[in-house]
Amino acid sequence: MLRIAVFASGRGSNFEALHRAIQEQHLPAEIVAVISNNSQSGALTIGRNLNIPSFHISQKQFSDSEELTKAILETVFQVKAEFIVLAGYMKKLTPAVVAQFKNKIINVHPALLPKFGGEGMFGMHVHQAVIEAKEKYSGATVHLVSEEYDRGAIILQEKVAVAPDETPETLAAKVLQIEHRLLPLAVKLFAEEKIIIENHSVHIIS
């Protein structure tokens, strides 16, 4: 059973979709904690309603990044999590957290990486950029988390057509549906030990 800590900053729809998939599809995984940098995050409300340990941990609570890192790691170790899922988490993890969970942190991004990734590329900013670039397709990507924004090895991707009259809001809705499918699938692959990571590349065992 893969013990997962979910990090989220916003509404928590990806977290909710992952939890639902674990329950309905009987994935060999368990969400043992929700961590958010936002005290008003919908993810914290969802977690508490599901009786999942839910924690608000923000840089504003600490004097420096080292103290923040210590608090995050202590919390993750406290619940005995062995895997981290970033589900709409808007803060960059410190190198110490990434190193501690090397190849055991994944993120879902609302675009077809490596395009439209990097610092500042989140939420509606991504969808606006895709439309302004006149891209024919967008989509979602689940990738390993490295020390650089959105640069970790790609695990899964799925694309969707960008309509001629697309708006950031309509594109966001289409991409979110893909995110809700891909994130649980990626967790399933890790939980069933069907992921092999070699030379910064991901291979899926069929």
Would you write up a description of this structure?
The longest helix is centred in the last third of the chain and has 24 residues, at 168-191. The protein has a seven-stranded mixed β-sheet with strand order 3-2-1-4-5-6-7, with helices on both faces. It has a two-stranded antiparallel sheet with strand order 8-9. Helix 4 (95-100) links the parallel strand 4 and strand 5. The chain has helices spanning 13-24, 42-49, 65-78, 95-100, 124-132, 168-191, and strands spanning 2-7, 29-36, 54-56, 83-86, 105-109, 137-144, 154-161, 195-198, 201-204. Helix content is 35%, strand content 24%. By secondary structure, the protein is an alpha/beta fold. The model has no long low-confidence stretch (mean pLDDT 95). It starts with a strand and ends with a strand. The chain has a single domain (2-204), classed as Rossmann fold (3-Layer(aba) Sandwich). The chain has six helices and nine strands.
Provide tags for this entry:
seven-stranded mixed beta sheet; single chain; 24% strand; 9 strands; Rossmann fold; globular; alpha/beta; 206 residues; two-stranded antiparallel sheet
